[in-house]
Amino acid sequence: MLVTSVYTQFFRYLTLLAAGLIGSFSAPVQAAELTAREAYALGQICSYCHARTGTTAPIIADTQQWQRRAENGFEALVHNTVVGIGNMPPLGTCGYCTETEIRNLVKVISGLTPEALPQNSTP
Ligand code: HEC
Predict the structure, then answer these.
(1) Which of 47, 50, 98 has most ligand 1 atoms within 8 Å of CB, for mutation?
(2) What is the count of structural domains for the chain?
């Protein structure tokens, strides 16, 4: 169906866009495997704040900022995203995101590898 294929193309474009965006922040980011919904959320929701300096949101894959925030482990980052923290509303405003999707987005947004996280955390 035409509508379906337009959407498919659109999501494919967003995935590429998200990959390009993350790529431009360079080094420590793992190869991201995002679903179309996750890529859409990253490009259209999380990036709204996390790719914009001056919003007080930690910038995507800015390792220094993220390592400090990850001191309490990966689960704490996920928990704070789900319930909201400071100027970030619950779910990072992604109303349709499931917890699994939030978890995947936090991995990508923080760019942290499991080795970079405290031992008690479960990425
Ligand atoms: C409206 C702006 C906004 C949007 C949209 C947003 N964030 Fe945030 N986010 C913030 C701000 C601001 C902080 C820092 C909050 C603080 O520590 O005071 C933050 C912090 C975080 C943190 C760190 C939490 C911690 O424990 O320090 C994570 C992880 C995060 N965001 C993930 C996401 C994800 C995933 C999305 C998309 C689903 C998202 N954010 C969308 C503004 C936003």
Answers:
(1) 50
(2) 1
